[in-house]
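Question:
When you can, review this sequence-structure pair and walk me through the tokens.
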Amino acid sequence: MTTAKPTQDETWGEAIRRLAAGEARLVALWADGTEARMALSAARPEVELFRYAAVDGAFPSVGAAHAPAIRLERAIADLSGLKAKGAPDARPWLDHGRWPLRHPLGSNAPAGGGEPERYAFLGAEGVGLHQIPVGPVHAGIIEPGHFRFHASGETIVRLEERLGYVHKGVERLMAGADLARGAELAGRVSGDSTVAYQIAFARAIEAATRMVAPPRAAWLRALMAEIERVANHLGDIGAICNDASFALMHAHTGVLRELTLRAADAAFGHRLMMDRVAPGGVLVDLDRDRRAALRELTTTIRDRFPRLVELYDNTASLQDRTVGAGRLDPGLAQRFGCGGVIGRASGRDFDARRDHPYSPYDELRFETPVWKEGDVNARVWVRIREVEESLRLIGQILDRLPVGPIRSEREPAGRAGEGWALVEGFRGDVFVHVRLDDDGRIARCHLRDPSWFQWPLLEAAIEGNIVADFPLCNKSFNCSYSGCDL
């Protein structure tokens, strides 16, 4: 007796059912040619991949049953032209009507020209409601994004975001690129996460080509990733306090962040450590003097940071702004598979370094801090504890850094293949899937930033807060604009 093989409708539908039932987490959703692709995670550390060959340019909507997929489906429609059949929101996402062509990952046809259609923001009903448009241009060096508030007096009733203003065409540029160019592009998806993206890209290529990075390279990658985490968390802690009008913390954490960036430059030749990771290993080694400089950095931060933590905890006016503000419901964090600080501050105990272990984290000792309160204060405390854990990880790596080569001597074979990787960045888990053509060049590369599942939750967390607390709540999330604009 034989069992009939499930059709693509059945397998795709079963994946959607599992998402809707909370039996799996959506890792990514993208298009590859005329196929819709989906990655799910259920039993750690496995990631399951599904595909659906579009029929008449459409595939069954995932977002109709699982809200975290909605914006991903909108991006698919803009980039590839594939439509999600039954989607609850068919508005454009990345394409604002200003591109010279349509569907750059699909038909690549010239745009029709003329003025773009007016974007239809979602409405809100009630007596005395008014709208407040903010952005896309903001003060300082904040990336561009538009925020549309509906408010009753000073109380926020609804927030809707519109992104896409820094679309760079990264995934289109990836198509046909060689591996060296692909690594450069991956490192520029979101500049503050350049190490995380380049590690994820390198590991995806290594999975596709069966190439193995030497042990020393894997440990150096982790060292760079933890330095990146420390620098960004220090900057965020200070910036959150600054948005609560406590500039003193901003100044002191800014000094520590600057020392961290200078140490990264001294150790690896670049403040952000950009272009230091490549498929098969890393491009720069760490000698004894540079290792000593990193030890000095960790000693300095360990000496100064506890006093700043005490200052934060004992400043009543600061606590008055952060405690209870911008609370994210733990159920929403779980439903959206929200990673990083935002998820862990709302009780979601997930860390790709531990739950989808990759070298050398499977040999290192560290804890993942989790808070349940879900407010701005909880997100500050998770960052504080993660700085402390990263300092311990840096010390372990420096103590145990293996000797040997830093790059695989074997070049990847020029053949077709597919691979994926899930890597923990400072914002959360970064996912990269790559497909190589017969010449070993990139046929398709999809890069998913953790912010795709975090931006929508800011809209939920801000409801009921006052307008003046939006900068504080927004900074405590610190989602990437560039990482979602692709």
